[in-house]
Automatic annotation (TrEMBL):
<keyword id="KW-0997">Cell inner membrane</keyword>
<keyword id="KW-0813">Transport</keyword>
<dbReference type="InterPro" id="IPR001851">
    <property type="entry name" value="ABC_transp_permease"/>
</dbReference>
<protein>
    <recommendedName>
        <fullName>Autoinducer 2 import system permease protein LsrD</fullName>
    </recommendedName>
</protein>
<keyword id="KW-0812">Transmembrane</keyword>
<feature type="transmembrane region" description="Helical">
    <location>
        <begin position="20"/>
        <end position="40"/>
    </location>
</feature>
<keyword id="KW-1133">Transmembrane helix</keyword>
<feature type="transmembrane region" description="Helical">
    <location>
        <begin position="46"/>
        <end position="67"/>
    </location>
</feature>
<feature type="transmembrane region" description="Helical">
    <location>
        <begin position="223"/>
        <end position="245"/>
    </location>
</feature>
<feature type="transmembrane region" description="Helical">
    <location>
        <begin position="134"/>
        <end position="151"/>
    </location>
</feature>
<feature type="transmembrane region" description="Helical">
    <location>
        <begin position="265"/>
        <end position="291"/>
    </location>
</feature>
<feature type="transmembrane region" description="Helical">
    <location>
        <begin position="303"/>
        <end position="322"/>
    </location>
</feature>
<feature type="transmembrane region" description="Helical">
    <location>
        <begin position="104"/>
        <end position="127"/>
    </location>
</feature>
<feature type="transmembrane region" description="Helical">
    <location>
        <begin position="171"/>
        <end position="193"/>
    </location>
</feature>
<keyword id="KW-0472">Membrane</keyword>
<keyword id="KW-1003">Cell membrane</keyword>
<dbReference type="Pfam" id="PF02653">
    <property type="entry name" value="BPD_transp_2"/>
</dbReference>
Amino acid sequence: MTTLTPPERRPRLPRLPERIAGTETTLAALAVAGYVVLAATTHGAVVSGGTLTAIFQFLAVPMVIGLSQMAVLSVGQMNLGVGVLTGFCAMVCAWLMVAAGLPAWLAVAGALLTGAAIGLVNGLLVVLTRINGFVVTLATMTIIDGLRYGVHGTATYQGYSHRLVSLGQGSVLGVPTVFLAAVAIAILVAFFFRSVPLGRRLLASGGNPLAARLSGVSNDRSLVVAHLVSGLLAGAAGVMVVALSGSVNATIGDDLLLPSFAAPIIGGVALAGGVVSVLGTCLAALIIRLVDVAQAQYSINPDWVDLIVGAVVLGAVLITQLRRPRAGGTP
């Protein structure tokens, strides 16, 4: 005879901790303050329509790669190959249109499937070998990097679908379409972690693997799904790169690793897993984007920008370690 666990004793899925809400509020205030300071010190240069459009156009990719990293952080893993995978998926998308002659929608689907497939391989390798995702994705990142240069060389793909480029560089009521796409992706990711049982299981596995297993959650499945989602989002970021740039080469994605970690970590995502913040990740990506704008406006050495962002990430990690949250949360 099967004995049912009393409802009050069933393991509960994590709720949104107050510190995440506080982090999101702080980041929103910092973003507004940063933009006001930029507007005042640049004599309104960042208020012009062209500059605002550029800010939000080039915010889309950092937002999505931040969400890609957040997906694996939710289960306490890391994906060192997010940037390289984004570049590889961008090259696959462009190659399918230029060399294979496929229509844009098929090339986009091919890029998304490529990202998801590589993410799936990463997850399966982590589960089957019991090697930490940090090491596994470091290895696959090196392999993918070799494929980018070994197969495609240094060639630049351009002259592909004008409709896709027009869509990526277009706008709706003055808002860049690529940014709207990133917002739509963020909403879907938030819905996945908040309302979809599979996403809630990822948070349960990341927050307390033992309790998750005792409540019937497969931690192995959570690891595989998290890496698959991460790869899929990297593929989406690759498509955005193709639509935005109009040309793609093997160097795409080399500078995306730090932003992929900076956005979720500054946004309040726990390195140990179980806590995610979609809004915090997107706001942190916006702040990093404003730092880039400030670098261009004030002609600051880019190395100093990397130093500042790296220092902020390190500070966020140290603060997280000092707080040592016991409960997980949803976006």
